[in-house]
Amino acid sequence: MKRVRVFALVPDYSLPCLNFLRVKVLPNYSEIDLLMPYNINNSLIFILSFFVKQIRERKRNLELVKINTLHDIKLFYPNIFVVVYYLVTHRLKEKKEFKYYNTLRWIQENYSLKSFKKNNYQIVYGFDTAADKVFKCFLNSEKYLESRGCYINYVLQKNVFINEFYNSNLQINDKKNEWFEKMQSEVKNANVIVGYSDFHIEQFHLDNMNAKYLKYKIPSKFEKSNEVKSVISQINFCFIGSLVIEKGVLMLLDIWQIIQSEFVEIKHKLVLIGPCNDSRILKKIKNTPNVIYLGKLSTFELSDYLKKEIHVLVAPTHYDSFGMIINEATSMNIPIITSKHCGASELLNENVASVIDDSFNRSSWIETISDHIKNPIQIEEKSKNLLLFKM
Predict the structure, then answer these.
(1) Which of 186, 215, 244 is the last residue of a domain?
(2) What is the C-alpha to C-alpha distance for residues 158 and 168, in angstroms, rounded to an integer?
(3) In angstroms, how far is CA 370 from the centroid of its own chain?
């Protein structure tokens, strides 16, 4: 077997993507060195998983990757320190007093990455906003960049339209910001860019025409349900994600007010799930009838609520590299209404979803949501189709 060494600096939730590369793209690797800010043996992971959500997620992801194929690079933390580190930082995060939570950047600032150069890695795998220093330390290695969100250049251009549409003040010029420069540098220096959809990948082409592009489909966190959604009278529509202007939440609330005036006999519900710090959106929620705001739910709570209460997912985002909730809705056999500006929409078809061309077109959203209310049988039909649907 050809000896290929991979140096990886990624967050826990990128481990499934690393496994995808290991199996599909780099089948003749010999080993992957996964750099983390702590080294925990399996017994400690098992114990800590009962107390800290972050560890439970890490345990799940490491199981997906098959930890025996990876080597945590030991950074000289004794196990007892790791336990204290997790429990203390977890408590500080709950109190919102722990500001230094980005462990990838923490590694870069506290360890000399140059010390790993002697290992002669053929491939270096980095994560957006935290790959710039890694790439510069391994100039002769092939550089893989996994980019989670939409590219900064695309986002700033899109924010111009969003500001005009909503009379908002989203950032449109970030050229003096160090993160703008780092993200641009990462994209320009990458030999391979891993994106989550065609919509996502196309955003990088102007800044790096020579890179190779790989597409990775984010897996659902939920097991596939065998239950079909059916409507007796009231329909529960649902939005899931951060309640921000970019996700189309304000427009959705405006649309819901119009729909409520049209369908007065049955009180259909719009359920909003996710964190919100926007006073404008919170005020709109209070003034819009038949809206239920649940805030942020745990993975278990969300899975249970989707299974028992929700009939249709509405995702009116103006830009999203993928949209994990789309995948999770299909796992629960929930029909979807979204736009082409959501990366995951490219995997859907008319038998399971309604995909709107222009995310800013209020009339299309009103017409599509109203059609689901007037013809609820389509909800059950699409849900049945989702039983056998695979993204």
Answers:
(1) 215
(2) 13
(3) 29
